[in-house]
Amino acid sequence: MTIFELLHSGTSAALILAATIAGSYVVLVIIVLISPGSTRGKAARDLLGLHPFSKKGPDSHGSHDTDTSPP
Questions:
Q1: pTM listed for this prediction
Q2: Domain boundaries, the chain
């Protein structure tokens, strides 16, 4: 079944996109776990750093500790 058929069958485009992103993340993690020292594993690790699931939010950088707003 193609994406075009999925969209016309009533499946949400957001669901299709989420499944695609999750699938790519799982594939990259498996590649890193299988061959962490190889060129393929290093490239997969670099791609994982760019993946949306690997992005850190503004709260994880400690930005709430450095409040610059006036009192």
A1: 0.58
A2: 8-53
